[in-house]
DNA sequence: CTCATCTGTCTAGCGGTGCTAGCATCTGGA
DNA sequence: TCCAGATGCTAGCACCGCTAGACAGATGAG
């Protein structure tokens, strides 16, 4: 009885170890370096062990992404505490961009890599929903009669676009601050 | 003498054949299906022939992307002809989104896949520069004292964000039109 | 305590990938 | 006609994601 509990605990620990290791490896050497062989080496087990925890490599990436969504939601929540609307919006946007910048590989897994997590559906995991709600809470004040969800989606898209285009070298690193400021002005302008 | 010319002509044709085939294959079956073996099969040559034309697979993707930039620039140019500012902006945005929608794989190669083409630099290829200029010409009218280039970059980021988040299922397909309308309103609002 | 079973992990291997060394063949000029 | 060089091929390298099947250790029954 207690033996089985211990086993489950150990399994859960190893599950976490796999996710943590995949994330660390991706962050330090890029997702290309995250191969099943390398990952198995790193956790000091053989390859097939990975497949007793996850359906395949994609599932591992998805698990990493999910961890990312949880962290992002926490950070966005923390950034919504400010009072004045424009400052709150700016805090949110900066928190989002900081997260993306500090965890580029994680951010890629969440928003760029093909990972079938259900977005905006009934079975959407809590962290995803919560992250969006945090964004919404900062943006909604500027809705001014328009649909707050739509406005949030557009704001989010703009942030995401800035991030991925900058990261790929498609936007010059120099104008970063100017672009963010302009976007915030644009979003918070009184109509 | 003329023999050498014929050879060069044939080489150029085969170069084009490779790019065309890679693009077609990517568009019909996704970039995952574009392997060097498959590509070699399709053009009815052996694998090493590919490497006598391109440094590697990445270079082939880059060549496809470059073709995409040329086409996109043409389409954006065509869309700038409208008169009234708001309509012109809308035409541009719709042309951009239509291009992305009609050529998803091509769009990915241009803007998502890691492909080292020099963006926003001295040696930036003409089509890239021209495409950006076309966007700028539609956006600049709404700059109103702000830096038109920065505004264009933000507008472009927003469009790109909408496209990639929609494509990945991160945004519901339903709100598409509403999001575009809201973005256009936001960009063209008098300050 | 012994033995059969059963769970868990490993080794080895399949069919695929991008890429390349080295051989054969074909071409064009002397 | 014969040779040199260009051209494209076969075969193979090291790697990939994934899995079948062998093996060892823990577990529970007698």
Q: Can you put this structure into words, describing what you see?
A:
Two copies of one chain form a homodimer. Helix content of chain A is 73%, strand content 0%. By secondary structure, chain A is mainly alpha-helical. The longest helix of chain A is centred in the first third of the chain and has 28 residues, at 2-29. In chain A, 34% of the residues are buried. The interface between A and B is large, with 36 and 36 residues. The structure holds a DNA duplex (30 and 30 nucleotides).
Helix percentage of chain A: over 70%
Q: Briefly note the structural class of the backbone of chain A.
A: mainly alpha
Strand elements of chain A, count: 0
Beta-strand percent range of chain A: under 5%
Quaternary state of this entry equals homodimer
The arrangement of helices and strands of chain A along the chain is HHHHHHHHH
Major sheet description of chain A: none
Uncertain parts of chain A: none
Mean pLDDT score of chain A = 94
Cα-to-Cα separation, first versus last residue of chain A: 65 Å
- Principal-axis shape of chain A equals elongated
The Rg value of chain A, from CA coordinates, equals: 19 Å
Number of helices of chain A: 9
Biggest interface goes to: A-B, 36 and 36 residues
């Amino acid at each position: 009885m207690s033996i089985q509990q211990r086993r489950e605990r150990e399994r859960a620990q190893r599950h976490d170890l796999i996710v943590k290791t995949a994330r660390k490896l991706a962050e330090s050497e890029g997702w290309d370096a995250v191969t099943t062989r390398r990952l198995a080496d790193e956790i000091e087990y053989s390859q097939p062990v990975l497949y007793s925890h996850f359906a395949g490599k994609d599932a591992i990436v998805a698990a990493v992404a999910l961890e990312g969504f949880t962290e992002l939601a926490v950070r966005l929540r923390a950034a919504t505490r400010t009072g004045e609307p424009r400052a709150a919006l700016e805090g949110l946007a900066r928190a989002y961009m900081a997260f993306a910048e500090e965890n580029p590989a994680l951010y890629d897994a969440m928003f760029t890599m093909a990972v079938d997590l259900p977005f905006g559906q009934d079975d959407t995991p809590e962290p995803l929903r919560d992250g969006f709600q945090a964004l919404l809470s900062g943006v909604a004040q500027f809705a001014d009669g328009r649909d707050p969800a739509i406005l949030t989606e557009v704001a989010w898209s703009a942030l995401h676009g800035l991030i991925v285009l900058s990261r790929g070298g498609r936007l010059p690193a120099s104008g970063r601050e100017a672009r963010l400021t302009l976007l915030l002005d644009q979003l918070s302008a009184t109509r």
